[in-house]
Design goal:
With about 325 residues, the chain is α/β, with parallel strands linked by helices. The chain contains eleven helices and nine strands.
Length: about 325
């Protein structure tokens, strides 16, 4: 099972593809760290996200609890508050960190609405690397505006020997958006195909493990491209079965990709087992099976890949064979 904890809807960024910052939670409304003790142990991967999670003054308490619940804890952040990240990673150097950027400096600061945001993100990256954080990298949400920066950002990450996670613009209750769309399809498709082919021919200097991660990210990105094209996702969604979300109010949700929140229960009032085995949870699992949202986001896409590893592995093998034959990848 994988978990995603939305610590807050407060955010210092003003991203065009996400309106969370327009509807912030009040600190008094947000769950107390103690309820996280109710989560099961042995969670394979646990993501701490927001809004901007480093805005929580009790982020240290949150991490102290969740690192005992999962050996794969990762923070998603815009990297603006370097001092906070410095403090928490000195205590927990084994956690992962993904710093969100939307392109190179000019594009990033324009889309994120943070003056000198790229500079702050890079400074945080350098501080975390100095602290000995090994699982560190950047994350980029692909849109029609920043697709031209996609390959250069990947090249930057390759030179820095760090990870690059990806998403594409989505509409859902979580993003508070219904009008995210891509108009320049041809340009976005070409940029993403170039990027996917770069991932499949990864020139990272790391051992095979680093290249293998890039190959699997190529599969993730072909799923992102399918979402842009309006095609059906390659693997079934396992929301509410293989993964769950906890929102700032302490409610257990099936996912963050639905139009309205799919609420399984309230962790402030119930135990996790009560929620997970409830009739409401079963109803939502049926809704997930029949969901037409067709989203493809890390929180549900990666668990689906782990559950069906043969599918992405065969896809990677097929596409790498095509590239060796001098053909372009088949992304149909």
């Amino acid at each position: 099972m994988e978990a995603n904890i939305i610590t807050t809807y407060r955010c210092n960024a003003k991203c065009g593809m996400c309106d969370i910052w327009k509807f912030p939670t009040k600190p008094s409304e947000e769950f107390k760290p103690e309820i996280l003790k109710k989560l099961p142990t042995g969670i394979s991967k646990l993501n701490i996200t927001g809004g901007e999670p480093t805005l929580r003054k009790d982020i240290d308490e949150i991490l102290d609890i969740v690192v005992k619940k999962s050996h794969g804890v990762e923070i998603s952040t815009n990297g603006f508050f370097t001092s906070v990240l410095d403090r928490v990673t000195k205590k927990h150097s084994d956690i992962g960190v993904r710093i969100s950027i939307e392109g190179l400096p000019e594009m990033n600061d324009k889309l994120r609405g943070i003056p000198n945001g790229f500079d702050r993100a890079v400074r945080s990256f350098l501080k975390l690397r100095a602290n000995g954080v090994k699982n560190i990298g950047f994350a980029m949400t692909i849109s029609g505006e920043n697709c031209r920066d996609l390959l250069p950002v990947y090249q930057m990450c390759s030179a820095l020997e760090c990870q690059l996670a990806n998403a594409v613009v989505h509409n859902s209750f979580y993003f508070r958006k219904t009008d995210n769309k891509v108009d320049n399809f041809t340009e976005v498709e070409e940029a993403m195909q170039e990027f996917i082919e770069a991932l499949l021919t990864s020139s990272r200097k790391q051992l095979l493990k680093g290249k293998f991660k890039d190959w699997l990210r190529a599969y993730i990105n072909q799923g992102l491209l399918k979402h842009v094209q309006g095609k059906i996702r390659s693997l079934p969604c396992g929301a509410a079965t293989d993964s769950f979300f906890l929102d700032p109010y302490g409610r257990i949700l099936a996912c963050n990709g639905s139009i309205e929140p799919m609420i399984m229960g309230d962790l402030t009032k119930q135990s996790f087992d009560e929620i997970w085995n409830s009739k409401q949870a079963e109803i939502l699992r049926e809704q997930v099976k029949n969901c037409k949202q067709n989203c493809w986001m890390t929180g549900t896409a990666v668990p689906a890949m782990r559950k069906n590893p043969i599918v992405p592995a065969l896809w990677v093998l097929k596409q790498k064979t095509r590239l060796r034959q001098g053909k372009r990848t088949d992304l149909s």
